[in-house]
């Protein structure tokens, strides 16, 4: 995949203190971007991400899903950019699935919606004046929107909302040349969730259901995000791009 030179572009990646967000920050920085490395609680993790990208950016700390969350991100970004434009927004931070419907609670549901839907939506609203014409918005969804998993119903609902937002905002923002897309990872092994994949038989089960025959890593997803964020993807908008290696495509 060819990712065009992105020198002088500025990207904000939410939830970049670890996992897929960190890999996206690394990939965008490798393409030349200056990266605003956002974190919720793990400042040390965000600083490690910044160090990994050679200090090419800055750190923004703000818990999402709480009152004042979006204002805090925007104020910090504004102060760092000092009048410069933002070119790429990656909505990556998300709360984890809250379990099957029988075990879910209204509080957990509200938290999922606040972090996974309300925060990216209003972050986009507040950042639009700062976003370049021909800018990029990429939101991280999940295969959970096309693969029924009863342990993740409310989580999948929030990702479904992100995908709907992607299509409708693409229509609205096309007039400014801004593309809006989503990337849907499958089961993706990261430093943080590695232990889950040690569960006996789980990795084998996932691999057996994956067309490309292996478990995905954060880099696999980051490459796709970086492409959509690049000038080379200028003619793609309103799409949900599956980045799962073909997880659960059909009968094997
Ligand atoms: P992760 O390792 O759990 O990391 C989540 C990141 O989001 C962290 O940087 C965390 O920051 C931040 N975050 C979470 N809640 C936050 C909050 N309330 N406020 C601010 N920041 C918050 O996640 P991941 O596995 O890399 O997943 C990244 C994205 O891919 C998510 O959208 C996830 O739904 C999606 N996805 C992942 C998989 C997978 O298998 N890994 C599969 C499908 C979709 P702090 O630690 O600093 O708080």
Automatic annotation (TrEMBL):
It holds the Pfam family adh_short_C2. PANTHER family: OXIDOREDUCTASE, SHORT-CHAIN DEHYDROGENASE/REDUCTASE FAMILY (AFU_ORTHOLOGUE AFUA_5G02870), SHORT-CHAIN DEHYDROGENASE_REDUCTASE FAMILY PROTEIN. InterPro entries: KR_dom (IPR057326), NAD(P)-bd_dom_sf (IPR036291), SDR_fam (IPR002347). Residues 9-186 form the Ketoreductase domain. Keywords: Oxidoreductase. GO terms for molecular function: oxidoreductase activity. This is SDR family oxidoreductase. It comes from the Bacteria. Belongs to the short-chain dehydrogenases/reductases (SDR) family. The keyword Metal-binding does not apply. The lineage of its organism: Bacteria, Bacillati, Actinomycetota, Actinomycetes, Propionibacteriales.
